[in-house]
């Protein structure tokens, strides 16, 4: 198992659940045991949830695994059935699960400037939380979900917050323009400035950041900057291993890769979507948790499993006290209708349809109705 986070842990659990009782080695480059990332931009950053509560393993859980933590896998030699580690060790394996997730994208030229943060790991979250505790003006670059959650948490902590987004509407990619605009209106509702449709040229400051420079010549004063411009799959270590890579590890609908005995799961895996007829890499908690079951069945059966149709992807986000939930794919929908609630109240259930069939559903503070629609989507999909 390479990657000791949600997808790696879920795959380890699946192995044991599906009857594998052999040697199991989990390799992770972070020093921490598996922990949950969603709270890092929410309750943990707000200081209402402690580190112990992030643990993904239960107290009495024993997967009888060997944990090699704080060490990076640097290569895979398929012919030799070996994994190479950064400390020179070699691990022999009959089967390999790639679960190396994704890393936050950075802003070129911002490295080393004090006050500039990305948010992907517990260590990132600790550093940002400490910085926020000292106060100051926060500029968030990127109005996607993580950027929006950081803005919302920092607002609740009493910060002066500006969000800069290069696209005309934040969240237009995952939610479509209409609903993206409704969700991102939450910023303005709370007095958080949203600057859209303009790119970031760079950051200014000698040793510490003091402003974000925009491409239109404006400069936004900043004491703290969070760069929330997406993530890239952690697959560099697989270059030259002979495995098909394309926006992550290219996988079939059951997690199999181009190499026998090797499957990939979670944020690093670009799974084939049989409904859409193309590959999609999904960076959501639920996919990283659920899909390992199918990948492990494939691994244990030597690839002889008929892949099922996966449930439509699902994610949630918490911003300014509003629970946002989304399932399915907005791209390709030809209509979006509000089925319940009202956009102005930020209390909405919206259904996306293509040729009359529901393809996605969005809820804002509509958890019960959302779950009903999510079930219906899954039934239609299968
Ligand atoms: C701040 C934040 C908030 C989020 N909020 C939500 C949310 O509200 N809703 C939602 O659906 N999703 C959310 N997500 C996404 C969700 O957390 C991810 O989809 C999930 O963590 C993916 O799990 P993973 O195991 O595939 O990857 P990761 O969690 O990225 O874990 C991969 C692990 O592999 C390690 N690794 C990488 N390369 C190597 C190597 N070569 N050798 C050894 N180890 C390696 C990494 O260091 C990491 O520990 C959020 C993510 C973040 C960062």
TrEMBL record:
Residue span, Reductase C-terminal domain: 314-381
Signal peptide range in chain numbering: none
GO MF entries: oxidoreductase activity, acting on NAD(P)H
Keywords: FAD, Flavoprotein, Oxidoreductase
Residue ranges of the TM segments: none
Oxidoreductase recorded as keyword: yes
Entry keyword annotation includes Transcription: no
Pfam families in the cross-refs: Pyr_redox_2 (PF07992), Reductase_C (PF14759)
Every FAD/NAD(P)-binding domain range: 2-289
Alphabetized InterPro entries for the sequence: FAD-oxidoreductase/Apoptosis (IPR050446), FAD/NAD-bd_sf (IPR036188), FAD/NAD-binding_dom (IPR023753), FAD/NAD-linked_Rdtase_dimer_sf (IPR016156), Reductase_C (IPR028202)
A GO cellular component entry from the record: cytoplasm
Cofactors: FAD
Stored Gene3D superfamilies: 3.30.390.30, FAD/NAD(P)-binding domain (3.50.50.60)
Name under which the protein is recorded: Pyridine nucleotide-disulfide oxidoreductase
Source organism of this protein record: Streptomyces albiflavescens
Gene (UniProt): hcaD
